[in-house]
Amino acid sequence: MRGDVYTGIFVAEGSSDAPLAGIVESLFAARGVALRLSAPDFERLGKVSKDVASRVEAGIRLMGGLQPDVVVVHRDADNAGMEARQQEVREAVKRVGYTNACVPVIPIRMTEAWLLLDEQAIRHVAGNPRGRAGLGLPKVHEVEALSDPKSYLRQCILKAAEVTGRRRESVAKRFPQHRRQLLDRLNCNGEVVRLDGWRALLESVEEVVLTFGG
Amino acid sequence: MENPFRQVIVNTHSSGVVQLCDPDDLLLAALVPQKASDGSVGASLSLLPFRGSWRAAADGPVFSEADLVEFLTPPPGRHIQLPVDFEI
């Protein structure tokens, strides 16, 4: 901790997941803890392996070798399941000799599950905020059970855009940017609070806040 | 010069400019979410000094190379580059 601000490092699964760092910071802030996460884009560090341990180790080295107060690691649960993935993250972090707090961010199956909850946000990023086309969004209790939420979200954005031909192709190509914008707009107090993956994240944050005496 | 500048402030996103600055001179503009007295969460802008620099207080927040990766590495998807064996 430096003054009244805690320091941390955020290891994302991909570079379009970077807005999750701000989301985790605001979850801490809402519980009275000022946390600043450094979120290096590890994809630009070609010589650092992609596994969690290598990235955490590289991040700590870049921070001058001092252990940050919190390490936040984002990984999709995919087919491994949330608990197995949490365990994997905690073990990888320990393996590099890191002993302070760890917050795993593990959306069930994929991060896109968290982005399928806000119809208006999807229409907005698709560039057609007043559109009326049916998007066929899943119900809240269904999103974590979808087998491929990424392709589902892709289809929903295309439906929301209501364009054809070349314009449709150009919307399709911009999926990573649209996905990033949806993450940026994720309402931390919205429907997402009903998802198991999100609740597990809140539990981890609260555990860490308690160890900080919050 | 009769009345020299005492301080010059440059606001930049340029990786070239950042790389040519003495880290002692750099300040990183970062948004840190904070809880307001009414319970809402808002982001406040902080200007952070580089770790170990003269501005860095013993217990104040700092930034490090971990915050500068995009300023210190070539951008992804570049359209032109030297042959691999010419790269430094």
Task: Give me some keywords for this one.
heterodimer; A: 214 residues; alpha/beta; Rossmann fold; 2 domains; four-stranded parallel sheet; 4 strands; 10% strand; globular; B: 88 residues; alpha+beta; two-stranded antiparallel ribbon; 2 helices
Commentary on this structure:
The complex is a heterodimer of chains A (214) and B (88). Chain A folds into two domains: 121 residues, Rossmann fold; 74 residues, no CATH class. Chain A starts with a strand and ends with a helix. Chain A is built from eight helices and four strands. Chain A is an alpha/beta fold. The radius of gyration of chain A is 18 Å and the shape is globular. The longest helix of chain B is centred in the N-terminal third of the chain and has 6 residues. Helix content of chain B is 11%, strand content 20%. Chain B has a two-stranded antiparallel ribbon with strand order 1-2. The model of chain B has no long low-confidence stretch (mean pLDDT 90). In chain B, a hairpin with a 5-residue loop joins strand 1 and strand 2. At the A-B interface, strand 1, helix 1 and strand 2 of A face strand 1 and strand 2 of B.
Short description:
Chain A contains 8 helices and 4 strands, in the order βαβαβαβααααα. Chain A is of the alpha/beta class. In chain A, strands 2-1-3-4 form a 4-stranded parallel sheet, with helices on both faces.
Please give the structural blueprint:
The complex is a heterodimer of chains A (214) and B (88).
Chain A: E1 5-11, H1 19-30, E2 34-38, H2 52-62, E3 70-74, H3 82-95, E4 101-105, H4 119-125, H5 149-161, H6 165-173, H7 175-184, H8 196-211
Parallel strand pairs in A: 1-2, 1-3, 3-4
Chain B: H1 15-20, E1 27-35, E2 41-49, H2 69-72
Antiparallel strand pairs in B: 1-2
**Low-pLDDT segments, ≥5 res of chain A:** none
Overall pLDDT confidence of chain B: 90
Q: List the total number of helices of chain B.
A: 2
Radius of gyration of chain B: 18 Å
Specify the overall morphology of chain A. Answer: globular
Q: How are the strands ordered across the major sheet of chain B?
A: 1-2
Instruction: Tell me what portion of residues of chain A adopts beta-strand conformation.
Output: 5-15%
Number of β-strand runs of chain A: 4
Question: What is the CATH topology classification name of the largest domain in chain A?
Answer: Rossmann fold
Assembly state of the chains shown: heterodimer
The first-to-last residue Cα distance of chain A is 13 Å
Question: Which CATH architecture of the largest domain in chain A would you pick?
Answer: 3-Layer(aba) Sandwich
- The H-and-E topology of chain A, N to C, reads as EHEHEHEHHHHH
| Total discrete domains of chain A | 2
